[in-house]
Structures are given as C-alpha cells and as structure tokens.
Design goal:
Jelly Rolls, Arc Repressor Mutant, subunit A, 7-stranded mixed sheet, globular
Length: 260
C-alpha cells in the first residue's frame, strides 16, 4: 500500500524515506493522482486543487478549524487544511487550478462547499478510470471545453514541446516562433483546446521528464537538470509548492502511469 495520499512532509526525503511510497499513481499534464490509504496529516497547503474520494467518510479540517466530513472532499487551491480522520482506501487527485478541470473543482468548492458528491467511486475500477470519470464530471461545468477539431499548430506544439523542454529553457514565444504564429495566438489556441495554459503545460512536462528519468534510474540531481530545472532544489520547491509533497513521490516502489 502507498504511504499517505496527503502529507505534511516538506523535508527533502532520503532514499530510505522514498522506499515507503508504494502503490499506484498517475501523472498527466495538469493532473497527479494517487490510490491507497488516506492517513491523518498536520496542517499544510498546496497550489493544486485536491480532491479526495474514499470508501468511508474522512474528516478534513481547514485553517480556521472548520471540520468537513464526507467521502468526497474538494480542497481549494492554497487552502490550509489537515486530514483529521482518514480511511483505509481512497484516491487523491491534484489538479492544476489553471486547467479547465482544476478551475471547475476550485469553483465548486467555493460555491458549494468542500463536501459534495462527485462521479467517482474508489471502491470499484482502476485509477485511470477514476481520473477519467472525475475529469468528465468537472468538464461538464464548461460545455465548450475540448470541443471541435484541434488546430494544426496546437498539434504541432504538442509534438515539439518534449524535445524543446529537454534541450533547455522554453518560453511560449520560442514555440510560436518555430511554428510561425504569434505567441498571443498560440497561447489562446493552446489554452482553449488543451485545457491548460502553455506555460503551465511546460511546467508539467518538466515534471513528467524528471519522473521518467528517476524511474529510469537517474538520481534526483541528474533528473532535475535533464528536465530543465535549475537543480534538484528547484524541483523540490516545485513539488512542495504545487502538491505539498516531497520528490519521494517519484519513488520506483510506486506503480506509475506517466504516459502523456
């Protein structure tokens, strides 16, 4: 089973600590998901919107001491919180708040409260299916999301970006220049048709590359540099700020699905 799905571990984890991360996990642009036990935590916060769905009710307490009890809980972006009572099994999904799905989840939490029903049942099905169902539920808030054929320059950008990121620092203007389109136009099309801003997609692509290298056997420093981070400290800060999780989440003892 996996270590806690949510944690207050903001320290740099040792290799020994990393071996305790076991279970199933998934990484996609704008989405990080884990499946395993939900354990109590100390109070913490992260930029990603977090959705926890468990087989049995859990209790999450916000920074003001308000308790939320339910099997489906949405924690808004940057909201201090702690898990007071966990569950033996559940899923935790972290969504970039700048994605269409992440913005929808954050909006629901603010408009309707942290506790409400979502189209995901962690007791049945695979983690990939849970994430697919959850995103479909959230995207219903924006009927235009992902509609229509993908513009050719967006497809070309998606093909170019992995190699460009591995070669070094990448900005949207660099991609636009190669494609012969204005940066403003590319940014608009990319956000509209992929559901995540280009600059955020590049960040998640860096995380994907770093994780791929770690799973291939690279140490954290080598993987960080290969993914375009300044150094391993830069990657560590990014993981902490985005997920409230240490880079030990990349441990090889986790069964990762990291296809783009």
């Amino acid at each position: 089973m996996m270590k806690a799905l949510v944690t207050n571990d903001f320290s740099t984890s040792s290799d020994a600590d990393a071996t305790r991360w076991q279970g199933r996990a998934l990484l996609r642009p704008g989405v990080l998901a884990f499946e395993g036990p939900v354990w109590p935590t100390e109070i913490h916060a992260h930029h990603a919107v977090q959705i926890v769905a468990a087989d049995t009710p859990i209790v999450v307490v916000d920074g003001g001491g308000v308790r939320r009890n339910g099997t489906h809980i949405v924690v808004p972006t940057d909201a201090p919180h702690r898990v007071a009572e966990g569950a033996a099994h559940g899923i935790a999904v972290y969504l970039d708040p700048e994605t269409v799905a992440g913005a929808a989840a954050d909006r629901r939490a603010h408009l309707h409260g942290w506790v409400h029903s979502l189209a995901v049942d962690p007791a049945h099905g695979q983690l990939t299916d849970h994430v697919t169902d959850l995103l479909a539920d959230l995207l219903r808030d924006d009927p235009q999301a992902g509609q229509g054929d993908r513009h050719g320059v967006v497809t070309a950008a998606l093909q170019l970006l992995p190699e460009m990121v591995q070669d070094g620092s990448v900005r949207g203007s660099d991609v636009a220049r190669q494609l012969g389109i204005s940066a403003t136009r590319l940014t608009h099309l990319f956000t509209e048709q992929v559901g995540i801003p280009l600059r955020r997609y590049i960040l998640w692509l860096r995380l994907h590359i770093a994780m791929t290298r770690v799973l291939a056997g690279d140490d954290l420093s080598t993987a960080s540099y290969a993914a375009g981070f300044t150094d391993d400290a830069h990657l560590i800060r990014t993981c902490r700020r985005t997920f409230g999780l240490p880079p030990s989440m990349m441990g090889t003892h986790v069964d990762w699905d990291i296809s783009l």
